[in-house]
Amino acid sequence: MPRAKWAVASLTVVLLSTGIVVLQRTEGARPAAVTTDDALPSRALGLSGHRRLVRELEQSGEHTPGTGARSPGTAPGPLRTVTGPLRAARPVRLLIPSLDVDLPLAGGRAEVVWDTGSPAPGAAGTAVVTVEGVRLDGLRRGRTIEIPRADSRTAVFTVVRISPGRASGHEGASGRAQLRLVGGETAVLARLTGQRRAH
Question: SS3 of 132, please?
Answer without folding.
Answer: coil
